[in-house]
Amino acid sequence: MIGKLKGIVDSYGDDFVLLDVQGVCYQVHCPSRVLQQLPRVGEAAVLAIETMVREDMIKLFGFSEDSEREWFRILMTVQGVGAKVALGILGIMRASEVANAIALGDKTAITRAPGVGKRVAERIVTELKDKAPAFASVEDDTIAVSQSVAENVASRPVADAVSALSNLGYQPAQASAAVAAAVKTAGEDASAEKLIRLGLKELA
């Protein structure tokens, strides 16, 4: 199995790069974001490789870092998510951003990827929410607030504060982070009004 390729960029296709490794050209399919970051034809490139072997084909998928390859594998464990959808998601988000979106239950961010509808995004968030925090770059407290709100188990003040900040135009991740910080300052028993006020201060 091929784990990494170092070679010279021979040419580009719509969703792949031909990488010349000592005279052998490998066709490597990559997320669009990765293709855009690769060097020009004739220059050296390094890709982390996922090798997919089936009865009728062998296909290589390339990524700029190992964490992207890992998320490619993780995403494909979800029913209805194949290589094309996984590449589409990683084409618009870095690995840490995918983990953050899933950990925070941000289905809207995931549906921005081509070919990902609400139902598939829902499955991705539901099935991977326990795995995502280990890869996420957001605080555990923020994830806890976001997931408790999404699962309707948050206290009323916390849920109301997140809802209020979201209605003011803040992204779900921003609202959850602000309320998590407010709870740290004001305590678990703080009113929604106090959490909103402190949350706005945090966002400012």
Give the DSSP E fraction (strand runs of 2 or more residues). 15-25%
Largest sheet: 5 strands, mixed, barrel
The arrangement of helices and strands along the chain is EEEHEEHHHHHHHHH
| Total number of helices | 10
Give the N-to-C terminal Cα separation: 50 Å
Number of strands: 5
Widest sheet: strand ordering: 1-2-3-5-4
Report the C-alpha radius of gyration, rounded. 20 Å
Helix content: 40-55%
Average of per-residue pLDDT values: 91
Briefly note the structural class of the backbone.
alpha+beta
Which spans of ≥5 residues are poorly predicted at pLDDT below 50? none
Query: Based on CA inertia axes, which overall geometry fits?
Result: elongated
Overview of this protein structure:
Residues 1-62 form the DNA helicase Holliday junction RuvA type domain. Residues 158-203 form the Holliday junction DNA helicase RuvA C-terminal domain. Belongs to the RuvA family. One of its GO terms (molecular function) is helicase activity. By secondary structure, the protein is an alpha+beta fold. Helices cover 50% and strands 19% of the residues. The protein has helices at 32-37, 66-75, 83-92, 95-103, 107-111, 118-128, 140-150, 156-167, 172-186, 192-203, and strands spanning 4-12, 16-21, 24-29, 44-54, 57-63. It has a five-stranded mixed β-barrel. Helix 2 crosses helix 4, helix 7 packs across helix 9 and helix 8 (156-167) packs across helix 10 (192-203).
